[in-house]
Structure formats: structure tokens, C-alpha cells
Amino acid sequence: MSTKNIFIKLLLILSLFFAACSDSPEIDNETMLDGDQIFDPSLYNPEQYLVSLSIDNPSSTQKNKSVIIAVHGYSGSTFEWDEFRAFSAINADILISQVLLGGHGRTYEEFKKSTWKDWQKPIMAEYNALREKGYTNISFAGSSTACPLVLNLIKEGSIGDNGMKNIFLIDPIVIPSDKTLTLVGLVGPMLGYFEATNTTIESNYYYRFRPQETLNELLDLIDKVRKDLQKGYKLPTGTQLKVYKSIKDDVADAVSAVLIYKGLKNSDNLPINIEMLHSELHVVTRLNGRDDVTQKDRNIQQQVFEDMLMRLMQ
């Protein structure tokens, strides 16, 4: 029997099997972000998370202070940058906006119908609001999917010359580690959603169920960013970028860092800064809620935080 015929029969079997499955997951509303009772806290108290809302009339000193827009990844929430905020409060005098991606931090159904452009909108909304209030020292920190979202903004010219001082990319995903993700378009409609393994704490801050529609959006985003990087482009004048990439993690292939290094240059055509971390965690800047966190993990996290703050205060 030919390989093609075997593949077709396998698809038929899968189709019949999953046809009997519900495309709506069983959600525990009391314990899961996916439900209708737990929401991201920034939706209730946005002024506690966004600098543009927390300070009505910034002084000239505040306008010149370093302010960083910190953005989480796909299926996550503002929780992802809580540890950086806590570390910075003790070790630096900076302002932090923790931005919630569009469609996130709400119910499963709201997440399901969101697009990657929806995810991106709050980033630009906060950036523009800070600019309008006169802040002059704005930087960006993104983890995982937040990285291709901001890379797309750079490519599209949404962030102009001298508009952003530093960009920090934590485990950017351009090439996924799990190559079966590319099959989402094929089997996704049959499955409806994919289930992640979250700890009890993580279930409050990360979606356990990933709608196939949003995974297709993620694939569309990283495919676009990959093609742009293959063509090559430059950072705006006055912007420095550094990538912190785990040598091995189960979400973002290390090749992602290579593609960014090859495809993105500083405005003077010099290479950008890449630091490979001896870690197997995806987004080591977030350790809270994980199982089996080691002292090595905490040391790497502190090293990254200290390096970021050093660059912000230069």
C-alpha cells in the first residue's frame, strides 16, 4: 500500500473518531482562567498595571524616567511579568506597564474568537498613550508570542526612530519546538481544541484549553514574521534589541534566535545582541507556579533581570 493511501486512511479514521468528540472543553469555572469567574486582574484595576492610567499628569522627572512595556505570551496573562515587577521594585527606579494581550485573560470563548492582530492592539494602545503623555524613555519586554508581535510592529513601521530605547525578547517563538503544531490546520477542526498541562496555580493565569482557531492565528503570525526576517530589515534609529533564548525549551526552537540574528540588524547595520541561556525552561523570567524550580533556574532569572535593568538605566 502506498504511503499516500495509508495517510488518507489514517485521516479518515481520525475524522470518524473525533467526529464524536465535543469541540467545547469541560471547563471548571472556579479554578480555570478559561471559565467565566477568573479574569486577569488588570481588567478590574487597569490603573495598577498601566503607567498611562496610573499617573494622570506626569511630571517632567516622570516623563524622563525609564518606562517598560512588559507583555506576556500566547494563552498567558499579566502574571507572567509579576516577578520582574517585584524584582525591579527593589532594585531599580523604573515604571512598568504590564499589558494584557487582546482576547486574553477572559473566557475561553472570547479567547477563541480573537486574532493575532487583536492580541497586538493593546501593545500599541499603551505605547501611544505613553507617547501622548510625554514619556520619552520607553522600552519593551516581551516573552514568547509577544516577541513576534513586536517584531511585526517594527517591520510595519509602527515604532519609529527614537521611539523605543530598548527591546528585550525572552524566548521568542518564530519556529516552534513542537513540529506537530504545523498540523493544526489539518487536525484542528476535528479536535476543536488542544489541552495543556498546567499546575494548579498556572490554571488561574494560563488557558488550559487552546482553541484550534487561536493556534492557527499563532501560526499565521510566526509565518509572517519568519518570512519578513528572511527578507531582512533594521531596527529604528535609537533602538537597541537583545534576545535571551533558552538553549532548549519545549515551545520555541533555538533556531528562532538564529533567524532573528540573521534577519534583523541595528540601524547602523551592526548585529543585534543574542544571549543563549543554559536553561531548558520556556520563559525562565516566569518561575512562579511551576513545579520543580531549581536554584539554577532562579540564578538565571536573576541574571536576566539584572542585565535588563542595567541596560534600562544606562
Count the strands?
10
Strand order of the largest sheet: 2-1-3-4-8-10
Taken in chain order, the helices and strands follow as HHHEHEHHEHEHEEHEEHEEH
Which percent band covers the strand fraction? 5-15%
The average pLDDT is: 92
- In total, the number of domains comes to 1
Largest sheet: 6 strands, parallel
Query: Which CATH-level-2 architecture?
Result: 3-Layer(aba) Sandwich
Task: Please provide a written account of the structure.
- There is one protein chain.
- By secondary structure, this protein is an alpha/beta fold.
- The protein has a single domain (41-177, 218-312), classed as Rossmann fold.
- The chain contains eleven helices and ten strands.
- A six-stranded parallel beta sheet has the order 2-1-3-4-8-10, sandwiched between helices.
- Helix 7 links the parallel strand 3 (138-143) and strand 4 (166-170).
- Helix 6 packs across helix 7, helix 7 (146-155) crosses helix 9 and helix 8 packs antiparallel against helix 9.
- It starts with a helix and ends with a helix.
- The model is unreliable at 1-21 (pLDDT under 50).
Provide a brief overview of the structure.
This protein has 314 residues and is α/β, with parallel strands linked by helices.
Question: Helix and strand layout, with pairings?
Answer:
Elements lengths: L2 H17 L31 H4 L5 H5 L2 E5 L10 H10 L3 E5 L8 H5 L3 H17 L5 E6 L2 H10 L10 E5 L13 H8 L1 E3 L13 E3 H20 L1 E2 L5 E7 L8 H9 E2 L7 E5 L17 H18 L2
Parallel strand pairs: 1-2, 1-3, 3-4, 4-8, 7-9, 8-10
Antiparallel strand pairs: 5-6
Helix pairs in contact: 6-7, 7-9, 8-9, 9-10
